[in-house]
Every structure is written in C-alpha cells, then in structure tokens.
Amino acid sequence: MTPAIDLRKPNNLELAAALSKVDGALLIRADLHLHAFACLLDGQSVKNEDRARGARFNSALRFTAQNIKTIVVVVSSDRPVSIFLQGKEMQGSYNSTESSKCDLYPTPRVI
Fold first, then answer.
1. 35 vs 1, 4, 22, 28, 52, CA distance in Å?
2. Which of 4, 67, 73, 83 could form a disulfide with 33 if both were Cys (CB 3.0 to 4.6 A apart)?
3. Whole-angstrom Cα distance, residue 90 to residue 33?
4. Do 27 and 53 lie in a common domain?
5. What H or E segment, with its residue span, contains residue 98?
6. Each residue's pLDDT tens digit, 35-69
C-alpha cells in the first residue's frame, strides 16, 4: 500500500484490526506501519513442515526460514495463536501471569 498506514494512530490501528479479518497476512514492519494486507507468504520447503497444521502454519515456517529477521504471528479460529521466528514455531516462552495487557506503546515505568 502506498502510503503505508501508520499504526501509531489509534484509528489506523482499528483499521488494521478490521483488515486482519481478511484471509491472509498483514505486513507490519519495524517502522510500525502497515505495508500490505491479505498477503500470501511463500518460501522454500523446510524439514519441520506439518501438512496436518495447514497452509498458515507451513507458510509461516517457510517464510521465516528465509527471512530470519521476520516474526510471523498466525491467528486461526481453530487453533491457538502461534508465533514463528527463523523457521521455527516459538513455544513455551510466554507466561500468562506476566501481563494480561498488551500495549503497542507501553507506559514507561518510573523508578
């Protein structure tokens, strides 16, 4: 998309949430801008693919294996949220007691 959508603006963040309902990926870069939506991820086959997990799972594995500085978050209605980095699904690294809130711009702590 040209221009990319700045997700630091509240209304744009709501727009991105609405666009996430379209099948496919949202491309959000480190600049916190939405650059594309409804994307298909692609990459060469990797050894840890699991056809039983479906296209979203396997495309995330492939894409992050080839784009090692990319994080892919897969949200599916029939499975929990999965996070992929460097061609692997990240598991067991989140503790739900740490925080029940996720902020795009967390409030800095005063020490």
1. 5, 5, 15, 6, 30
2. 4
3. 24
4. no
5. none
6. 888 888 888 999 989 888 888 889 999 999 998 88
Does the residue 104 lie in any domain?
Answer: no
Q: Determine, yes or no, domain membership for 101.
A: no
List strand residue ranges (DSSP E) for 2-70, in order: 5-6, 25-28, 33-39
DSSP 62-93: HHHHHSTT-EEEEEETTEEEEEEETTEEE-S-
Q: How many domains does the chain have?
A: 2
Give dist(CA 62, CA 49) in Å, integer: 8
Asked if the structure places residue 32 within a domain, the reply is: yes
Give φ, ψ of 100 to 5 degrees: -105, 5
**2 belongs to a structural domain:** yes
52 and 28, same domain (yes or no): no
Which residue range forms the structural domain that includes residue 18? Answer: 1-39
Question: What is the DSSP secondary structure assignment for residue 4, as one 8-state letter?
Answer: P
Using a cut of 0.70, tell me whether the model's pTM lies above it. no
